[in-house]
Amino acid sequence: MDIFRTKSVEQSIRDTEAPEHQLRKRLTALDLTVFGIGVIVGTGIFVLTGQVAKELAGPAVAVSFIVAGVVCGLAALCYAEFASTIPVAGSAYTFSFATLGEFPAWVIGWDLILELALAAAVVSVGWSGYFASMLSSVGVHLPASIAGDDPVVNVPAILIVLLLTSVLVAGIKLSSRVNLVLVITKLVVVLLVIVAGLFFIKGANYTPFIPEPVPTARVEGLKAPLIQLIFGVTPVAFGVIGIFAAAAIVFFAFIGFDIVATAAEETINPQRDVPRGIIGSLAICTILYVAVSLVVVGMQPYSQLSTSAPLSDAFTAVGHPWLATIISIGALAGLTTVVLVLLLGQTRVLFAMSRDGLLPRSLARVHPTFGTPARLTTVIGVATMALAGFVSFGELAELVNIGTLFAFVVVSLGVIVLRRTRPDLPRAFRTPLVPLLPILSVLACVYLMLNLPVQTWLRFIIWMIIGVVVYFAYGYWHSRAHREVTR
User: Fold this and answer.
1) Cα–Cα distance, 20 to 322 (Å, whole number)
2) How distant, in Å, are the alpha carbons of 173, 317, 420 from that of 170?
């Protein structure tokens, strides 16, 4: 069984021209950049800033965001080369098929299902919490059974997924316009936090900028980071080590820029605009994260920061609670765009897999009016609604992190492979310092993966085993490549 057969770049591009599977090219560099900002600026900027400053890095949390941004930047450069060379839906799945083969591509596609579908459901549950909180602030209290901490059915989460699924079915340009309005809303709120917060900064709150390191309580059993189990390392808060420990957490505030690559097939000039969208959105978000973190730790001593709502609570602490309400509106807009773009990314990955026959090809049919994979989008929406409405996630959300990092590793390795196997391909964007930069990207991502709990690794391995079974039970026998060989 030739499970490592590759799909040529030329064939991937030809597949995009089949009428029944042809997506409409409507997106520009601005649309892609806004998509990237839409999915990156979410709970990270509104929650993680206070948590890691208080528990791990102190005022030096800004340095942690820079470190995480650099690590993401390494992977982003690899994504930019692939997306400009192979402007086809599917992102890491498509890139893997062209370099590593069908089975590795299936593995990464199965991994992306874990990353995107689970993330969309998790964030929609977070959206529900913010929405219920805002209604409570104006005197409208939703029953605990439909929107509490442990609801029987999370109705607001189901409704927001239903609404955004309808937007995605209606067309990619409509989706980009809705995303643009919401992104502008949350960027205005973030800039308000930065500008308004400058008037309440106290220089004494930055001293010491890097607090003295102190041992933290050791995490035992399956909740311990894998690196701790392997090397017997005791976690340390603050100091230089604390900065890097915080970077391993705030890294996940950047997750999502890779989704820009899934929209390459719907971009008017993908060779030029996709790299701009990927790198531009990541650069803008890094600057925003660093600025917000510096303002927040300047407004309050890091030891007094809130870990649940640090931005709004910081303004409450300085006597301006009205700003807390505005920040909540920005957080709600931020979470809405995250869910929208995650659903978009998930449908485009499964669209590419279905077009290759690894999933039912009927799912890859494009709607004649809307020009979107409407049937597949509906299936993804229903599945996400079921997850968001009835499943309690908790620590399962960490699976999103390991799935994303695994995708980054595969794409970084794929750049090296494609440079060796197809040096003749025209590349509108070239990752610099190959193979050094992709190798650094792999090492950085693996290091962050090792900082995840053992139980997350075990769940990830179980998910991958299930994926292998599905591939050999269905995907291998129905793939277009297999059928062409056996004709």
Assistant:
1) 52
2) 9, 44, 41
Q: What are phi and psi of 356, to 5 degrees?
A: -85, -5
Per the CB < 8 A criterion, the answer to whether 58 and 210 are in contact is yes
Distance CA 131, CA 135 (A): 6
Length of the chain (residues) = 487
HEC-encoded secondary structure of the chain: CCCCCCCCHHHHHHHCCCHHHCCCCCECHHHHHHHHHHHHCCHHHHHHHHHHHHHHHHHHHHHHHHHHHHHHHHHHHHHHHHHHHCCCCCCHHHHHHHHCCHHHHHHHHHHHHHHHHHHHHHHHHHHHHHHHHHHHHCCCCCCHHHHCCCCCCCHHHHHHHHHHHHHHHHCHHHHHHHHHHHHHHHHHHHHHHHHHHHHHCCHHHHCCCCCCCEECCCCCHHHCEHHHHHHCCCCEECHHHHHHHHHHHHHHHCCCHHHHHHHHHHECCHHHHHHHHHHHHHHHHHHHHHHHHHHHHHHCCHHHCCCCCHHHHHHHHCCCCHHHHHHHHHHHHHHHHHHHHHHHHHHHHHHHHHHCCCCCHHHHCCCCCCCCCHHHHHHHHHHHHHHHHHCCCHHHHHHHHHHHHHHHHHHHHHHHHHHHHCCCCCCCCCCCCCCHHHHHHHHHHHHHHHCCEHHHHHHHHHHHHHHHHHHHHHHHHHCHHHHHHHC
- The pair of structure tokens assigned to 362 is 């009927």
Angle at 256 between CA 125 and CA 186, to 5 degrees: 65
CA–CA gap between residue 114 and residue 97 (Å, rounded): 18
Provide CB contacts within 8 A for 424, sequence distance 6+: none
The pTM is what? 0.85
List pLDDT tens digits, range 150-207. Answer: 788 899 999 999 999 999 998 877 788 888 888 898 888 889 889 989 999 999 999 9
Q: What is the pLDDT of residues 412-435, one digit of tens each?
A: 999 999 999 989 888 889 999 999
**Facing residues of 453 across strands?**
225
Q: CA–CA separation, 460 vs 458, rounded Å?
A: 5
Q: How far apart are CA 407 and CA 421, in angstroms?
A: 21
